[in-house]
Specification:
Elements (H helix, E strand, L loop, with lengths): L4 H4 L5 H14 L5 E2 L11 H12 L13 H15 L8 E4 L2 H12 L5 E6 L3 H9 L3 E6 L10 H7 L4 E7 L11 H13 L3 E5 L20 H5 L1 E6 L12 E4 L2 H12 L7 H12 L3 H22 L15 E2 L4 H6 L5 H12 L1 E2 L1 E2 L9 E4 L4 H18 L2
Parallel strand pairs: 1-10, 3-4, 3-5, 5-6, 6-7
Antiparallel strand pairs: 2-8, 7-8, 9-12, 11-12
The structure holds 4'-deoxy-4'-aminopyridoxal-5'-phosphate and glutamic acid (GLU).
């Protein structure tokens, strides 16, 4: 059958492909260590699953809900942002969709016309570039500073800006680098966007997962003008270990929220009913289980950082501030073991050491590999030991 040009020009998600590769190898009996997927390995906390079970037994969420999400959930989201970021939104400024990934897809669909440019800092999460292309927009790649965990500056934005620029995507803390922008850095970027009338699409999905004293700042909290210029993307997946429930949301300008609702009225209809009840509980009745998970990730980061930086030929400019990824430059390790590229080095790691990560080329930086440390410490340590043994064996 003929496939559309639209789908043919889109890359398969490399993060999902890598984790599937690890699953396939495991199914074939290989002893594989997967440091691929960016999702919490913790169970969804009991206070959420218990409430969701009760909601199911009470036949809640059995029917279509409002397209933009239940008003009680939108209120819970508004309250959470007031509590955590000290920002006020009206429930008409909230659109709830089927996961942040799907909400982002919708945001590009409603903001971007063919030929419009969206500034995208490199490295970028694999779905940003493809979703912009699916909206027939042009991603304008801006290289971040490798000495600052690849963060970008206003100077970089100045260089990338053209009369076709409509939006700028900032993902802080970042997938894949784990870098979080400071309040000063964000304010400078935010003011630049206001001055140039560029919409900030702020993917803050990792905002609750920050470590070692990093404060998570939301673009919405910087100034009223920056808040007005920004569409915030967030959701329950990461902080509440709820990736499978598929609830994410956008916050911002009412006209954009209404457009997202119109778009969803012709696509998904509404996000899953029962998941909305679960999400409501996640926000309204939070227990210390959520903070305990954050602390575990902090401990894991501190150990994983020491391990990664002890691998010969692996370079990392700084300890990441958030999320659950490490994105070292491994080009020296590839070179000293006789591989022409990091992609080839990665293939050999999979085939011979049975350690699966995600190649940096899919995030726009071919010198790097992305390691997820959302696995138990022993598994991560074993993965690194295998890589060290592999390098020792192949060293030329
Ligand atoms: N944004 C970023 C940067 C991510 O890493 C992810 C991970 N899946 C998402 C958005 C989407 O999250 P979800 O669809 O699970 O809400
Ligand atoms: N965002 C996570 C990751 O980067 C989950 C997979 C995906 O949706 O890309 O691994």
């Amino acid at each position: 059958m003929k496939l559309s040009k639209r789908i043919q020009q889109v890359e398969q998600s490399a993060t999902l492909a890598a984790s599937q590769k690890a699953r396939d190898l495991k199914a074939q009996g290989a002893d594989v260590i997967s440091l691929t997927i960016g999702e919490s390995d913790f169970n969804t906390p009991d206070y959420i699953t218990n409430a969701a079970s009760e909601a199911v037994l009470n036949h809640l969420g059995n029917h279509y809900t409002p397209t933009n999400g239940l008003p009680e959930l939108r209120q819970a989201i508004v309250d959470a942002h007031q509590r955590l970021d000290d920002v006020s939104y009206d429930i008409n400024e909230v659109f709830v969709g089927s996961g942040a990934k799907n909400v982002l897809f919708d945001v590009f669909q409603v903001l971007v016309d063919p030929g419009d440019e969206v500034i995208l800092p490199v490295p970028y999460w694999v779905s940003f570039s493809e979703q912009i292309k699916m909206a027939e927009g042009t991603p304008v790649y801006v290289n971040g500073n490798p000495d600052k965990l690849y963060k970008i500056s206003v100077n970089d934005l100045e260089e990338a800006y053209t009369e076709n620029t409509v939006a700028l995507l900032i993902n802080s803390p970042s997938n894949p680098t784990g870098a979080a922008y400071t309040k000063e850095e964000m304010t400078a970027i935010g003011n630049w966007a206001v001055e140039n009338d560029v919409v900030i699409i702020a993917d803050e999905i990792y905002s609750r997962l920050v470590y070692n004293g990093t404060s998570a700042n939301s673009f919405a909290s910087l100034s009223p003008a920056i808040k007005e210029q920004t569409i915030i993307i967030n959701g329950i997946s990461k902080a509440y270990a709820m990736t499978g429930w598929r609830i994410g949301y956008a916050l911002g300008d009412q006209e954009v929220i209404a457009a997202l609702t119109k778009h969803a009225s012709q696509s998904t209809g509404n996000p899953t009913g029962i998941s909305q009840y679960a999400a409501m509980t996640a926000y309204n009745d939070e227990t210390d289980e959520v903070e305990n998970m954050r602390q575990s990730f902090e401990n894991r980061l501190n150990k994983a950082f020491d391990l990664i930086t002890s691998v010969p030929g692996f370079k990392l400019s700084d300890k990441p501030h958030g999320a659950f990824y490490l994105f070292p430059d491994v080009s020296e390790a590839a070179e000293m073991t006789g591989f022409d590229s990091v992609d080839d080095f990665n293939l050999a790691l999979i085939e011979e050491a049975h350690v699966v990560t995600v190649v940096g080329s899919s995030f726009g930086v071919p010198e790097c590999l992305r390691f997820s440390y959302a696995v138990d410490e022993a598994t991560f340590a074993e993965g690194i030991q295998r890589i060290k043994d592999f390098i020792e064996e192949k060293k030329q």
